Sequence to fold (328 residues):
Amino acid sequence: MLLLAPMEGLLDATLRDVLTRLGGVDRCTSEFIRITNTLLPERAFIRVVPELLNGGRTAAGVPVRPQLLGSDPQLLAENAARLATLNPPGIDLNFGCPAKTVNNSRGGAVLLDEPELVGRIVAAVRRAVPAQVPVSAKMRLGYLDDARAEDNALAITEAGADELVIHARTKAQGYKPPAHWARIAQVAQALPAKRPVLIANGEVWTAEDAARCRALTGCEHLMIGRGQITDPGLAHAIQGGEPVPWSRIVPLLPLFWARVSARVERRHRAGRLKQWLNYLRHRHAAAQQAFDELRLHHDPEAIAAWIEQAQQRWGRPEAAEARSAQPC
Fold:
C-alpha cells in the first residue's frame, strides 16, 4: 500500500486530484481539519475534503481519508461521529504536525509528550464511529526527542487503531535529513503481535529510497509526500512502473490551474502554481524554465495564456476536462 501524505497549505484536493491521475497512489490522507471547541457542520469537513461528495474518492478513484487534529478526546469523538455520517473511507488522527502555531494550541506533535492523552483520543474516536470505519493515526517519533516513541505507538495500538503511520523524525528534527528509518523498526519490535498496520514515512524521494526504507523499517507500506510533489511519477515508479516524463505532467497543468482558479482567491492563484513548480524544478529541467518564466507574473490571465503556450511547447493538453473546469 502506498499512501499520499497530508501537507497543510500544499497537498490539498486540487493537487490530490492531479497527482492521483498518474497512478501508483493507493490512498490519500487529507490536510488536517482542526477541532477546537465546537461540533463542526458537515460543510466544514466537505470544504477540506470535497472528495466526500464523490464517494470519498478523487476523480481518478483514489480514496481520501479525512484527518482530524485536536486535543480534546470527547470533542474529537463527536466530530468523528459526524464525519462518519458522510461515509469517508476511514478517519485519521494527527499527532505529527510540527507547525509552531498548531503545537502552541496543543495540537499535532506536541501531544506526543502525553502518550496517555494520545491513547484516550484514539480510543474515544474508535468508540464513536461505526466498526466498519477504519481509524488510523499519524505520529512522529516524538516532540523534542524520541524517548517516548514506543509509549505513543503502544498507546495508539491499545486504543484500537487500525493503522499507524510513523514519520521517522521528531518535531524538533522537522524535515531535516536524514529520516531515522531504523528507529521505526525498533518501535515496531516493542508492539504486540496484534498491532495496527504500520506505515513508514519520511525522506522517500526515489524508488531506491522506497526499497531502502522498506528494508530498514520492516514496513511494506509507505507514505510519501514531498517526493511525490517533486516527482509526480514517484508512486508509479515505486509500484514498478516506468518513470513519468515531463511531457505527461504538462497536460495536467491546465487542469491544476482550472482547479486552483475555482477554489483559490484570485490574488493567491499565481502563488499556488509557482509553489508546485518550485518543487517540480528539482526533478524536471523544463519545470525550472517554467518557474523562471512565471516568477514575476501575478496576473491570472497572463498565466492562463502561458499555460496554453506550454501545451504547444511541451505536450498536448487534456483539453476537454481542463476547459470544462475553467471558471468564467
In short: The chain is about 45% helix and 15% strand. The first helix runs from residue 13 to 19. The first strand starts at residue 2 and ends at 4. Residues 317-328 have pLDDT under 50 and may be disordered.
